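ok trying this again, last paste got cut off
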Amino acid sequence: MGKVNVFIKHYYLDKAGEAPVIVEYTHNQKRWRINPDIKVDPKLIACIYDFDIEAYKLSALASLKPDQRTKIQVNNVLLQNMQAKFNAIVMSFKARSINPEVDYVKQEYQKGQIQVEAKSKTVAEHFAEFIKNKEREIGSGINSYRATWRHFEMFSDKMGLIFLEDLKRELLDNFRIYLKGTGLGGPSIHKHFKDFRIFLNWVKDNDENEQIQIPSAYKNLKLKVRYGDPIGLSVEQFMEFYNIDLSSSPELERTRDLIIFGVSIGGPRHGDLQRIGESLRRHGYNLNNTSITYFESKTGNAHKEIYVNKFGMEVLKKYDQFPYVPSNWRIRSA
């Protein structure tokens, strides 16, 4: 009968003092070893056989930091999935009266190896890959996705490991309730769920082998964007804001003028306003041309020949060179 063994290769330490974890299948004095790319410090972590789950697992020998404990949990899921796969193959061979030779088991195991690895990834691991990908695509716009993930991390802090298949209606409803309990309004909650849907759709789009299963609840969850009183200025408040004397604080005055200019062309996103400002500083602007064209960096939507109203023209006339657009946080805190 074939046997599965998991052990730490203590004598093969790297520069960080970590040793690889090896999964081994043996039968008739032949063996096949797999390196699942797991490394541990053998002074802190041991590999033991747990009779309750009937599988090998990693166990702490000393007190660990939270991130180290999470790493052990993730690795144990991977190891248990691998052992379960081996056991299922051996039992299948036994049912068909096939001798579970190493070469046969190896061939059968490698057919489903991609599926085992895909299922072992947590939502956190998938989101980390998503963030890295988006950093290359959109740069500064990544902060919105990072904020969504911070909220989800705080929401799920005491739930242990969460996998994609755990994202069912009840969990998502509880996440919505949590967001509302933090004091966020409807638009902000809608934004975070929109970001989360973008993340899950990205996972599905990059699953070339169609091995990852995600419950469909996230597609059907509807959130109202508008509830509560809208935030805005009346005409009188806008004119007061426009006419206030800020000459004693040039930085605040520039920030106010940038907000006025943004309003004059329809209120672009902060990142788009930064790109417009950079273009105007680099190429200059013609005061006789009262329109502007730009493309949204997040959606790619084109805004052609947008009319700059008199308030925006006043800002352009005021500066020889268009002011630098500070960070979104800086503008909001001004």
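PB: full thing came through this time. Residues 3 and 26 are 5 Å apart (CA to CA).
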